[in-house]
Design a protein that fits this description.
By secondary structure, this protein is α/β, with parallel strands linked by helices. The protein has one domain: Alpha-Beta Barrel (fumarase). The protein is about 30% helix and about 30% strand. The longest helix has 18 residues, at about 180-195.
Length: about 200
């Protein structure tokens, strides 16, 4: 049975390990956006022994690229929706090692990510696609942005303060459960029934 849980960053491993697939999460605190280029840049910096731009301990990473507007010296987020997470599959163990406790995206991640979630005490949260303006309403402040000139608006790391962001659905938990595995299993059972008549 699913539960509704309110979480605030920094997330603790204890709180994250209590979450289960289908739980509904509302999130407040700091969220970092990161897409393909940001993950590669973070890995490159770590491999060179250089300092990362943020401390990711207890953090939430959102697979997203916002549409932002600059007014004077501040930015506001006009829309921000999840991007397809499977592209970041090779990086789940890496971000787990940085201390990330939740990844938000769409479409799910694979088995290597599920293993990383068990190892580090992480979860994958599903954000509704096609609702970029609604997600943006939860963003109360753009705290910082990294690598905007180098990578452009969608690929930069945006450091956002969110309030009551949700509903986000736990799609993969730290106990090895995945909503995507369940859906696939149910689909295969129905396919088998159809084929056998």
């Amino acid at each position: 049975m699913s539960r509704t849980v309110q979480l605030s960053t920094p997330l603790t491993e204890e709180a994250v390990r209590k979450l289960r697939v289908n739980d509904v999460v509302t999130l407040s605190g700091t969220v970092y956006t990161a897409r393909d280029m940001a993950h590669l840049k973070l890995r490159e910096l770590q491999e060179k022994g250089e300092k990362l731009p943020e401390n990711f301990g207890g953090s939430v990473v959102f697979h997203a690229g916002p549409v932002a507007r600059k007014t004077d010296q501040t930015y506001s987020i006009l829309a921000i929706g999840p991007t397809t997470s499977i592209r970041m599959e090779p990086h789940s163990d890496f971000v787990g090692g940085l201390g990330v406790k939740a990844i938000v995206g769409k479409g799910g991640l694979g088995d290597s990510s599920l293993q990383a979630f068990q190892k580090y005490g992480m979860v994958y949260l599903l954000a509704a696609p096609g609702c970029g303006v609604l997600h943006a309403e939860a963003v109360k402040e753009v705290k910082r942005v990294h690598w905007l000139e180098e990578m452009g608006m969608p690929e930069a790391i945006w450091v956002l303060e969110v309030s009551n962001w949700g509903p986000l659905i736990v799609g993969m938990d730290s106990q090895g459960n995945s909503i995507f595995h369940k859906i696939r299993e149910e689909g295969l059972k129905k396919l088998d029934m159809l084929v056998k008549g």
